[in-house]
Amino acid sequence: MRIALVNSQDIGGGAAGFARQLTQGLIARGHEAALVVGLKRTDLPWVHEVPVTGGGGRLERLLEFIIRCAMPAGTPRHRLHYFARRILHAQEWRGTLARRRGIEDFRLPGSARSLAELPFRPDVVHVNNLHFFVGPTHFDLRRLPSIARDHRLVYTLHDSWAFTGHCAYFLECNRWRQGCGSCPHLDIYPALSRDESAANWQTKAGVYRQLGCTLTAPSAWLLNCARESILAPAIRRSAVVPYGIDLDFFKPAADPEAARLAWGVAPDERVICFVADGGRATPWRDFGFVEKLVEMYQKNHDAARLVVLEVGGDARNKAVGKARYIGTGRLPAEGVRQVFHAADLMVYPARADNFPYVILEALACGTPVLATRVGGVPEQFVDGESGFLFAPGDIEGANRCLAEFLHDPAQRARMGAAARRHAEQSYPIDRMVSDYERIYAGEGAL
User: N or C terminus: which one in the chain shows less Cβ crowding within 10 Å?
Assistant: First the structure.
């Protein structure tokens, strides 16, 4: 079978990891597969970039050279390449004017050309994150109906953008059900400069009335939202397909004490971790909740000395009472794994989320999770067995779970083993690849 996957990039975020791992898995099973992206950051030969207006390899390289001369020494090549493509794409000035008016920009002519320029004609086109494809310009949704006429189309949702007036997560707002407009969160990614969310919603609704596809999502929560949205007319078949992860990489530590020592953790200290790519600035995570939780926990008469490993962003080390905060900055996968090996528990105070990879990775490392009961998070583990769930804002409930867990070594060992066992049973990559093979063949979806 010949499959073309489409995603905004090949590295960065859960959707990129999903698309890259799925493409690799398909190739390993003998399929012809390629990944089409807006920004290529790897050297993988089967990753192809969407052409930009006025593009061309030599012109892009010339622009990269000019930009390199103007940028600080050591700027990563993918950043130079990104700016070069932005400059080339800026020739599509009508999209720039539209964005200034609050209209989502779909003026990316390469959306159609990208599939035609692949080394094979795909039987299946599998689209994923289509927003912010080249800078703030999205993959041209208006091309989807013609793509679906020429190929079997599978659309995997990783967030809510496809059926809202602009936002990747709608938080407490339900205007996406009726038509958006009067948006309370214009600053939510992808942000709008003016409130044209109703017009954007109508544009998407018009596309979906002409479309027929197989719709998938990693969580039943997101798929059910889509079924109640403007996407509903486009759904011919649908399926929940949970993500898979590399269980040989994310696995329990052979020597947890070595991981703790690497972060300077004393034997009498307990460790919790907070992981977010943007650190405390990540809009979907509430780091303030973590700080309040630590403060409340310390008021317990038998509270242990606590270390908080804060991964992502530019956090700095600090001490608050008997607690120490260690800011690790952004870490590669090996570093994140080491944090999970050192931690007794990961705290995941989400304001909104779908099916975050980081929870699966923590579970696979044998690290239980304390998480908000939002979105698809409750589908990822069993409350009370491999982690704990609490209602948004319920700091008293979260504190009870934290105190009970940290004070009971037998429970920590039992839940850590259950976390790994659940990951092995539910989240192998091979299972995910097999599920999509069946979907591409017209099976495995209802």
Answer: C
Ordered domains of the chain (ranges, CATH): 2-53+92-244+429-440 (3.40.50.2000), 256-426 (3.40.50.2000)
Report DSSP state, residue 16: H
Contacts of 193 (CB under 8 A, 6+ apart): 99, 100, 101, 102, 186
Cβ contact 397:370 at 8 Å: no
Q: 279-313, pLDDT tens digit by residue? A: 888 888 999 999 999 999 999 878 899 999 999 98
Cis peptide before 356 (omega within 30 of 0): no
Q: pTM of whole model > 0.85?
A: yes
State phi, psi for 198 to the nearest 5 degrees. -65, -40
| pLDDT one-digit tens code per residue, 33-79 | 999 999 888 999 999 998 875 445 565 566 666 766 777 877 776 66
Round to whole Å and give the CA distance between 272 and 195: 40
CA geometry: angle 246, 247, 248, nearest 5 deg: 90
